Amino acid sequence: MSYSETLSHLMILSSDNRFEVVKVNTDNRGSIVKKLIRIEKRKTLKRKREEVDEYGHEDLDVIDTLKIDKDEIAKMVQEGQYDVGLHFSKKLAFDLD
Questions:
Q1: Residue 42 is inside which H or E element, if any?
Q2: Distance from C-alpha of 56 to C-alpha of 86, rounded to nearest angstrom
Q3: CA gap 40, 46 in Å, rounded
Q4: Considering the entire predicted model, what is its pTM?
Q5: Among 28, 44, 74, 85, which one is least packed by beta carbons within 10 Å?
Q6: Among 2-6, 46-50, 51-55, 82-86, which stretch is predicted with the lowest mean pLDDT?
Q7: Is residue 20 within 8 Å of residue 2, measured between CB atoms?
Q8: How is the chain split into domains, by residue range?
Q9: Burial of residue 64, with CB atoms counted within 10 A of its CB: 0-12 exposed, 13-18 middle, 19 or more buried
């Protein structure tokens, strides 16, 4: 495993001869906030759809009017109360012969 601070990439060679390059986003808090908002929207949408299916409501406007508290999410990021795995995004992976 090797980390290049200048490129902000983590390079991993595993025991099964798989090479991976992972981008590490440590300096861009905005991208973390965007990812958290996206995740929260998916969770809320899934919950709302399950409620609509469970109770048999035909009111699909409930799904269209999702409200996500973006300030609350930004505050969580500022305080460091989030999954740090969001800092990593896989860019490249291949098997070596």
A1: helix 29-55
A2: 36
A3: 10
A4: 0.57
A5: 85
A6: 51-55
A7: no
A8: 2-95
A9: exposed
